[in-house]
Amino acid sequence: MLRGRTVLLLLVLWAYLCSHGDGLRALKRTTGGRRGVALTLTGQDANGVPLRRSKRGWMWNQFFLLEEYTGLDNQYVGKLHSDGDRGDGSIRYVLTGDGAGTLFIIDENSGDIHATKRLDREEKAYYTLRAKAVNRITNTSLEGESEFIIKIHDINDNEPKFTKDPYFTHVPEMSPLGTVVMQVTATDADDATYGNSARVVYSILQGQPYFSVDPNTGVIKTALPNMDRETKENYVVVIQAKDMAGQMGGLSGTTTVSITLSDVNDNPPRFPKSLYEFKAPESSEPGSTVAVLRATDADIGRNAEMNYRITSSDGPAMFDISTNRSTQEGVITLRKPLDFERKRSYTLRIQVENSNPDPRFLRYAATTDEATVKLIVEDVDEPPVFDRVSYVMEVKEDSAVGTIVGSVSATDPDSSRSPVRYSIDRRTDMDRVFNVHPGNGSVFMLRTLDREENPWHNISVIATEFNNPRLISRIPVDIRVLDVNDNAPTFATYYETFVCENAKANQRIQTVSAKDADEPIGGHRFFFSLAHEVSGKANFTVRDNKDNTAGILTRRNSYSRLQRSTYLVPVVISDGDFPMQSSTNTLTVRVCTCDREGNMQLCNQEALVLTAGLSTGALMAIIICVLILLLIVVLFAVLRRQQRKKEPLIISKEDVRDNVVSYNDEGGGEEDTQAFDIGTLRNPEAIEETKQRRDIKPETLNPPIRRTVVLPPAYRDNSDVREFINQRLQDNDQDPTAPPYDSLATYAYEGSGSVAESLSSLGSVTTEGDQDYNYLSEWGPRFRKLADMYGGEDSDGYRDS
């Protein structure tokens, strides 16, 4: 339709131009050529001579070509013509530049230019080409090369396209009318400078009456005020973009916009019920959860967060409520233990409110809600309850066995009031120092106490219901042992000093202090004095310094080391407590030779050893270490000696023919060929007499020692027996294949002096002719086999066997 109108307008223009003088020349200019046009420029030079531009042979304007040509023939572009062309074919037209020869071709004789392909302005809007006219014979240019442009005229062949498809956006709910949601943008590839092909207009196809779009800018706005997310959350809006300014015949494109209403805090929380009822056993511990309730909020996310609080309760400070942030539930917990016997139900008033209220919506509805919670306490068979959390008792360390230290008390909290039985957890009193009366809970002593050994005893008392022994309670009982003055003070350490022979009277030679295992309340106070029995003839005196120390002073002007080298000074130390305790401690004083300044030069040998030597404890430690080392050496020697003892070779004394040898060692495997010759055990008769054992020294290096056997008196006259035994002993001593350990060898020897004579057939060789075995047949059926063997005339071969 559009192309038809264009052709019609061109025809009308052609007729108009033909009716006027310059019609043909103007058409040629429009289509690209202008023939023989001379341009004269008037003006003067510096000398006043008029200037004139020389005439060009040919020139033209730019050509225009419509895009998307659909004809079957090549599209005509225009015609090139030179004034020098007289139509005799002597001029040839040449075309070069963009697309010359491919997209654009020229008839070298007529100068007609055609487009060979369908062109798209959106791909390339114009083409720059160069043309010239050359002599066909000489191939010389008749005029200078000129450049011209073929511009592609646009047609509306591209629909608008949106930059995104689909769009996703959100807008807060309850927004006022005209709130900007977002802006959509569509672009058109057609020429925006030519006609309305690229002029886009926006409209909404789907989404009314909730949203609207600006036709020129594509801005989407809300068309209704106060849209509620809780009513409808998601909207789908379809936007159309149409070119040609939205006129009929324009091309269009669409896109989808998904709009979500974002939540605002416009809804308060609400309890689904006004009354809740829960049950909790009285055994619930403080801090445990006894009830969970939840309010609902139509909002989501942060706007649905809520806080719970207890506004009133008939159990003050009994319960706490907190919010579980992950579930937005109100969790009621215990602060104090429940007691069914004291109170069987509680009523609480719970309030819930938004954590993050929006001030814009506070005026629309109430921001809080309340509900009543009734908690019923369930009765549970509880263990006994002590009247205290813990007990602290005191007892003097000198108290007698059976003394009551204190008492504990527990009762059954249930309404049944079951009797309670007491006992001590023996895991806390392994030494059985205390016991408790099972009926009244009195704790008394089973053993005497010593504060210095253990000042505190920590035990546990168990209370058990008499009717239900599985219900027990434990309570710690700390027993403090009070101190009594039952220890005498002693020297703080071992004291030993020396006195110079030239010492002066009242000269201090040593300061001593005391210690006491007791711990009196007012602190220690020690008194020092010289023993009464030596005070009259004492060589030294004791001066109490009144600060729990005392000084040992000389009483004479001189001492003689030769007369007496050592003095033992008895010092009595007593404490100030009741009853007073005292002890006598000895101070050793050595007499030494000193210089004028009082420095010791020479003492007796004992003093030197004690002064320069080690303490008694160190010497005892050294002696113990030496004894331990000696004991280890002796044990090692005994073990070594036991390992070298030979084991008995024979295992069974009843079997005198075989000897079982136990070596108790592990061989070297198949590669060990140096131990024993197994052939000897398999065939003892094939042993070579000179063959030596491979696991022991050859006997030639250690010749056998002949041992003399002492026979009993009854056998001393039996020379044949003596010779038999000696021969067997000598054979065993010289046998290289004998076991390496001593073994028992048993032999049977009858001798030649037997009254019954020998029954062996070995001696029958010499007396065969004189023997008569016929009497064997008279001995009965038991000797029939023997009579058959010897009674008949046997062959010599049989007898020899």
From TrEMBL:
GO terms for molecular function: beta-catenin binding; cadherin binding; calcium ion binding. This is Cadherin-10. One of its GO terms (biological process) is cell-cell adhesion mediated by cadherin. Residues 1-23 form the signal peptide. Residues 82-162, 163-271, 272-386, 387-491, 491-602 form the Cadherin domain. Keywords: Calcium, Cell adhesion, Cell membrane, Cleavage on pair of basic residues, Glycoprotein, Membrane, Metal-binding, Repeat, Signal, Transmembrane, Transmembrane helix. It is a single-pass type I membrane protein. Cadherins are calcium-dependent cell adhesion proteins. They preferentially interact with themselves in a homophilic manner in connecting cells; cadherins may thus contribute to the sorting of heterogeneous cell types. The lineage of its organism: Eukaryota, Metazoa, Chordata, Craniata, Vertebrata. It is found in: Cell membrane. CDD domains: Cadherin_repeat (cd11304). It holds the Pfam family Cadherin. It comes from Oncorhynchus kisutch. The keyword Metal-binding applies. The chain crosses the membrane at residues 618-639. SMART domains: CA.
